[in-house]
Design goal:
Residues 142-371 form the Sigma-54 factor interaction domain. There is one protein chain. Helices cover 45% and strands 16% of the residues. It is α/β, with parallel strands linked by helices. It folds into 4 domains: 3-131, 3-Layer(aba) Sandwich (Rossmann fold); 138-309, 3-Layer(aba) Sandwich (Rossmann fold); 316-388, Helicase, Ruva Protein, domain 3; 394-486, no CATH class. The protein has a 5-stranded parallel beta sheet with strand order 2-1-3-4-5, sandwiched between helices. Helix 3 (61-71) links the parallel strand 3 (49-53) and strand 4. Helix 6 (147-159) packs across helix 18 and helix 17 packs across helix 19. It is globular, with a radius of gyration of 31 Å. The two termini are 58 Å apart.
């Protein structure tokens, strides 16, 4: 059966008997007689099942149950009790124990309880696997269930417990600090400090002191010794936002600090050492900054260990409406307004807008709508003018570091009225309607997908995530296009 049990029984004879019962069920058993020994064994190698006597020589089994529930909630606990403590055993089940066995019990009674516990563990595992396979609509401050964001969530889960440096990049307003905070919150440093420093918002004369701290008298105004972000983040996470804005001279000092964990305060004469996990972010192309001599190449390689790219909002499909509705309800509650949602026309406009300011811009616009209006539903007339303009006939293609490209969804033949290059049927005069050349839908789709693949340097899974479809969809469509072109 292949499962591990820690048995806690102070009676040597009963412990030996119960151990034999467990062996017959296929368990790998560790027998201990004291509560402290049980806790040590659990922390050394957590078992699948803990069989725990309520009364032990050194401590109460209820205290052990409470500690196990706190530190190892996935362990299934079965309590052992005498007739006189059945009420306590019932309390134990209310506190998280799976079941209890009343002494004396035989191998058959133990086997039934044990098998039920294993079945429950299997069901919990299946439910967890199912839930983990579903798209997450909310994750550590993020809202969104698009494929692109699911990739981000999975990457955060994978890197959270590592000490490897993470480099987050993406356009302004995509949530880089939210991502850094999520890595900290999911990881094993969550109980320590998360210290964020924006390298673009601090004057270059002060940023070294902000990072490393200073001693009394180090410069004019330094009336006392002050800890910097490096000291404050000891044991936790240090987030350097807009890292590419840092002066080259300070970059060399930061490189030494990242390599060794050792730094020296401004005006100080001795080194100090801390344990810090580094996360950096930028809205620029960091490698381009290296090539232009604005960012040290050795620092780039030291920080760019695990890259995480946050997609622009215009590449996240239905996430736009998920975020907008969440914000609308939040702001309506704060402002004591009656808004419940967006009209169908307003939703369409929100999805077709390019969102150059990403999530931050969407937050500001929803806040503006709520403050300036009051209704049950957001109508198109309530949207700012840049969003409520007539629909464009351009499809936004994936962007790389903010360089948006567009693909026309319709081509027009030359006309005597000199139609604009990107005109649509909606604004084409009826007299000229016969001059419009309508392209087959599969060709338009083909061009958009091929553009995405090209912008992703041939990486089909990445292109699929940007387009909010699965890679298998792209492969299937490529096959169908080949069949279409052969006809």
């Amino acid at each position: 059966m292949g499962f591990r049990v820690v048995l806690v029984e102070d009676s040597i004879s009963l412990g030996a008997l119960y151990t034999e019962y467990l062996y017959s069920e296929g368990a790998d058993v560790t027998l201990v007689h004291y509560g402290e020994d049980a806790l040590t064994e659990i922390h050394r190698q957590p078992p699948d099942i803990l069989i725990l006597d309520i009364k032990l020589p050194d401590m109460s089994g209820m205290d052990i149950l409470a500690q196990v529930n706190e530190s190892h909630p996935d362990i299934t606990v079965i309590m052992i009790t005498a007739h006189g403590t059945i009420d306590i055993a019932v309390d134990a089940m209310r506190s998280g124990a799976f079941d209890f066995l009343v002494k004396p019990f035989d191998s058959k009674r133990l086997a039934i309880t044990l098998r039920n516990a294993l079945k429950q563990r299997q069901l919990v595992k299946l439910v967890t696997q199912y839930e983990n396979s579903l798209p997450k609509a909310n994750y550590q401050g993020f809202i969104g269930e698009s494929l692109a964001m699911q990739t981000v969530y999975k990457t955060i889960d994978c890197v959270a417990n590592s000490k490897a440096s993470v480099f987050i990049f993406g356009e302004s307003g995509t949530g880089k600090e939210v991502c850094a905070q999520a890595i900290h919150n999911v990881g094993n440093r969550k109980h320590k400090s998360f210290i964020a420093l924006n390298c673009a918002s601090i004057p270059k004369e002060l940023i070294e002191s902000q990072i490393f701290g200073h001693t009394k008298g180090a410069f004019t105004g330094a009336v006392s010794q002050r800890d910097g972000a490096a000291t404050q983040a000891d044991g936790g996470t240090f987030f350097l936002d807009e890292i590419c804005e840092m002066e080259l001279e300070l970059q060399s000092k930061l490189l030494r600090f990242i390599q060794t964990g050792v730094f020296r305060r401004v005006g100080g004469s001795k080194d100090e050492k801390v344990d810090v996990r580094f996360i950096s972010a930028t809205n620029k192309d960091p490698w381009q900054q290296v090539q232009e001599g604005l960012f040290r190449e050795d620092l780039y390689y030291r920080l760019h260990v695990i890259p995480i790219e946050l997609p622009p909002l215009n590449q996240r499909g239905k996430d736009i409406l998920l975020i907008a509705n969440k914000l609308l309800k939040q702001y309506a509650k704060e402002e004591q307004k009656n808004f419940k949602g967006f009209s169908a026309a307003a939703q369409k406009q929100l999805q077709l807008y390019a969102w150059p300011g990403n999530v931050r811009q969407l937050q500001n616009i929803v806040r503006q709508i709520v403050v300036l209006n009051n209704a049950d539903e957001v109508e198109v007339a309530m949207l700012p003018s840049q969003i409520s303009k007539p629909l464009s006939n351009l499809v936004q293609a994936p962007s790389v570091y903010g360089a948006n490209q567009t693909v026309a969804v319709m081509q027009t033949a030359p006309t005597s009225s000199a139609q604009p290059e990107n005109s649509t049927l909606d604004n084409t005069p009826l007299s000229d309607i016969n001059t419009v050349v309508i392209e087959a839908l599969w060709k338009t789709e083909k061009r958009t997908i091929e553009t995405a693949i090209e912008l992703c340097e041939g990486n089909i899974p990445k292109a699929a995530a940007m387009l909010d479809i699965s890679p298998s969809t792209i492969y299937r469509k490529k096959q169908s296009w080949d069949d279409m072109e052969l006809k």
